Automatic annotation (TrEMBL):
Name of encoding gene: htpG
Name of the featured protein: Chaperone protein HtpG
Cellular localisation: Cytoplasm
Alphabetical list of InterPro entries matching this protein: HATPase_C_sf (IPR036890), HATPase_dom (IPR003594), HSP90_C (IPR037196), Hsp90_fam (IPR001404), Hsp90_N (IPR020575), Ribosomal_Su5_D2-typ_SF (IPR020568)
Function: Molecular chaperone. Has ATPase activity.
Family annotation (Pfam families): HATPase_c_3, HSP90
The entry's keywords: ATP-binding, Chaperone, Cytoplasm, Nucleotide-binding, Stress response
HAMAP family: HSP90 (MF_00505)
Region described as C: 558-633
Residue segments, region A: 1-340
Length: 633
């Protein structure tokens, strides 16, 4: 491009719709801790330096001339400006449009949905959320009325300026290289009237030390344009220091600058492995759930360093079920110039992955032993993800089962471990009973539980979608297999009822009940595979269960919903022969119409108790009406 063309071509681009929404939120944010913008910009600058270091391994000319990476902040009180400059990788024109005009992070999108929902509900934004989760570059519009980004990509002889007031569009134009950093990016914030504090040395230095003290690139601060910058942080890698030199605050600060989250970590795991493989790990379990935890594309976010050079955050350093763990591994065992693809397949990496996984799980186990409250919080945040491991990681299945906590008919508002369950199991109890479903209240009201409750047999109440899957794969815990109480026969006769209820122990199947069952089997043959007397019911008249060997009812619904299986299998209708309604119906064999209405209504009642709808709502309503009218007549 010629000099003349460079000066004239200013292109205006509209922001992607989501960016515009996000910016609107930023500008109208009521969040009081605006300092977070600085951490976001410093973190991007540090990433850019790390990317350069990596690319320079194969092409040393990229960092030629200016080998030491640094981030320099310049204050300009008079001009009400704050500048953040790095000598990292820089951005080409296309990269600017991609990075500063769209939203790449799925977490940011999820965050926006959450914050918008909170706003509609409460009439205001959930300001805390902005504070807890970084929202990247765009957060600078909390403090700036205009932002200029001038960047020159390493190795390029072009420089570009991106400029915006954050109100719907941005402009891009080419600038003369003499106006740009020799390499890297300079971001100039034209501060808002009320953001003057970000030109105070004292304030900015404190914010840097508090928020970004452990960024692995040195940070310098110049008091005014042209002044000699002074070092604020030295950029040494925290993980290379020995544990006893590192305070809890150091770890928390580091976690925050690494993860982009602002919460306190629930757990940190810092160790150096020596021997066959040498590597250092510094990993954290966050104190809160990231928004995109259940995003199917979400993978581990651990960073891989080789001899302190950042290589990739895409190396799957932990299995998928630990995808919430943040942190890094730094090893000297891998060569620096190995491609990312080769690293992925390297046996050294799988050994490291194994080691890191073990250490993280052991740390979680220790927390479970030492601090129930902290562990419960961790479990509430990440239990549903950890349980995926029971399904996916055969080798660690028992370990994960032992770690898992459950609601059950005995847990009240607390949680039970499988060890608790087995410890309190009835004599001779061979199975661990469970019931799966969408929510706890519905499960607690399930008729299928009645017989178990009456006999004091504990049942696990499983409400996460993953539960339906791992229970199929987990053959046993402590010699006991898992058994769904909505599948097959309950066989509760082995457990005695409490003395007070002994009298009504085994339901008597009289001839009239047998007759009713034969009638129901015939009449309901299209809808159910069998009708039988139940020993799992005590209060309800009927319930539905899956036949032995079929899918658990809840799992079948999930698979059907996901289009993985076609059509539902026919359930079994179980009847409580002791129930007064059932007895009354059985006694009315003289009235065919009434009996037919009654068995169809019983079936629909069982469906409703299962959280489903009557198959034919109209016929159901008419039947109900007929029976009502008779009763009232
Ligand atoms: N100083 C910089 N140098 C080079 N590229 C930058 C710089 N600042 C931002 N970018 C580019 O802009 C993109 C968007 O930045 P933003 O902070 O919004 O999200 P992010 O950094 O990708 O997300 P995360 O904070 O989760 O890493 C970055 O991924 C990067 O490509």
């Amino acid at each position: 491009m010629t000099e003349a063309a460079v000066e004239k071509t200013v292109e205006n681009h509209a922001f992607e719709a989501d960016v515009a929404r996000l910016l609107h939120m930023m500008v109208h944010s009521v969040y009081s801790d605006r300092n977070v913008f600085l951490r976001e910009l410093i973190s991007n600058a540090a990433d850019a330096c790390e990317k350069l270091r990596y690319e320079a391994i194969t092409d040393p000319s990229l960092s030629a001339g200016d080998g030491e990476n640094r981030i320099t902040l310049t204050l300009d009180e008079e001009g009400k400006r704050l500048t953040i400059e790095d000598n990292g990788i820089g951005m080409s024109r296309a990269e600017m449009i991609e990075a500063l005009g769209t939203i790449a992070r799925s977490g940011t999108r999820a965050f926006m949905e959450r914050i918008e929902a909170a706003r509609t509900e409460k009439g205001e934004q959930d300001a805390q959320l902005i504070g807890q989760f970084g929202v990247g570059f765009y957060s600078c519009f909390m403090v700036a009325e205009k932002v200029d980004v001038v960047s020159r990509r390493a190795g390029s002889d072009e420089a570009w300026r991106w400029s915006s007031d954050g109100k719907g569009s941005y402009a891009i134009d080419a600038v003369d290289v003499s106006e740009a950093p020799a390499r890297g990016t300079r971001i100039t914030l034209h501060l808002l009237e009320d953001a003057g504090t970000y030109t105070s040395r004292w304030t900015v230095e404190k914010i840097i030390k508090d928020q970004s003290g452990h960024v692995p690139v040195p940070i310098l601060l110049a008091e005014k344009p042209g002044a000699e910058p002074a070092r604020v942080t030295d950029g040494t890698a925290l993980w290379t220091r020995s544990k006893n030199e590192i305070s809890a605050e150091d770890y928390t600060d580091f976690y925050r600058s690494l993860s982009g989250q602002y919460d306190d970590p629930a757990l940190n795991v810092h160790f150096r492995a020596e021997g066959r493989h040498e590597y250092t790990t510094l990993a954290f379990v966050p104190g809160s759930q990231p928004f995109d935890m259940f995003d199917p594309d979400r993978r581990g976010r651990m960073k891989l360093y080789v001899k302190r050079v950042f290589i990739t955050d895409d190396a799957d350093l932990v299995p998928r079920y630990l995808r919430f763990v943040r942190g890094l591994v730094d090893t000297s065992d891998l060569p620096l110039n190995m491609s990312r693809e080769m690293i992925q397949e390297s046996p050294i990496l799988s050994a490291i992955r194994k080691g890191v996984t073990s250490r993280v799980l052991t740390a979680i186990e220790k927390l479970a032993e030492s601090d129930t409250e902290a562990f419960t919080k961790l479990w509430e945040n990440f239990g549903p993800v950890l349980k995926e491991g029971i399904y996916e990681d055969f080798e660690r299945r028992s370990q994960l089962l032992a770690l898992s906590r459950f609601r059950s008919t005995s847990s009240g508002e607390g949680y039970r471990s499988l060890a608790d369950y087995v410890g309190d199991a009835k004599e001779g109890q061979r199975a661990i009973y469970y019931l799966t479903g969408g929510n706890l209240d519905q499960l607690r009201a399930s008729p299928q539980l009645e017989g178990f409750r009456a006999r004091g047999v504990e049942v696990l109440l499983l409400t996460d979608s993953i539960d339906s899957f791992w229970v199929m794969n987990a053959p046993e815990f402590d010699g006991k297999s898992f058994k769904s109480i909505t599948q097959g026969s309950a066989d509760l006769s082995q457990f005695a009822k409490p003395e007070s209820e002994q009298a009504e122990n085994k339901p008597e199947t009289t001839a009239v009940i047998d007759d009713l069952i034969t009638f129901a089997k015939l009449r309901l043959t299209d809808a159910v595979s069998d009708v039988r007397v139940s020993d799992r019911l005590t209060e309800s008249a009927v319930c539905l269960v899956a036949f032995e060997g079929g899918y658990d009812r809840q799992l079948e619904k999930i698979l059907q919903g996901a289009g993985r299986i076609e059509g539902a299998s026919k359930p079994v209708l179980e009847i409580n022969a002791d129930h007064s309604l059932v007895k009354a119906i059985a006694a009315r064999s003289d009235d065919e119409t009434l009996r037919e209405d009654a068995v169809l209504l019983l079936l629909d009642q069982a469906r409703i108790l299962d959280g489903d709808k009557p198959e034919e709502p109209r016929a159901f309503a008419e039947r109900l009406q007929r029976v009502f009218e008779r009763a009232l007549r």
